[in-house]
Amino acid sequence: MRILLSNDDGYFAPGLAALAEALHGLGEVVVVAPEQNRSGASNSLTLDRPLFLKKAANGFHFVNGTPTDCVHLAVTGMLDELPDIIVSGINNGANMGDDTIYSGTVAAATEGYLLGIPSIAISLTNFEGNNFATAGRVARELVERFIRDPIREPVLLNVNVPDIPYAELNGMEVTRLGRRHKAEPVVKMTSPRNETVYWVGAAGAAADAGPGTDFNAIERGVVSITPLQIDLTHAAQLPSIRQWMK
Which residues contact 145 (CB under 8 A, 6 or more apart)? Predict the structure, then answer.
């Protein structure tokens, strides 16, 4: 079993270390992660400069690029054989609803999916990060399930784990993405050099958090597992846009 790990918080992130520890012994585990925190990088590739690949003292590899760069470089240039599965995380904070569009954690898994490899993005739903071991155990259970019963097609799973002890989890549930309200406005400030600077505002509260959504599962202490797809075609609008174009 060949397992490739990545993330968006950087190769030094505690969530990545917890994930590598949790998956130890299941097969050959290789870690390729960004050199620094690239949260919110989404599915960006670095095309304006060369990338380097280095190895840290703990055995993890790191790249001076985005999460997508890391997985793309590992799969298409570094590894002699394709991974059997890619796991991205453990992210420090939720990636639910609209968050998935911006998430570097999801982006790393998405790149694996686009390259034809089953991929999982796993996030702990609290920035305090008190229970990485819980998310690590969930990740191990999912990979063990994949080893026992491989999914015969590329799959992209977005997994969110409540930040609580494992014994307090109320199971796992396959969900759909919820929706958030519009994000908060940017925060305008003045720097010590008297320059106007802006911080991106906080994400909006949940707007669609009903039964069956990832938000609802987390609220109930349930692990949320959402299969994602990449086809962005708004199929319902095809007839109206064709009519508009006449």
Answer: none
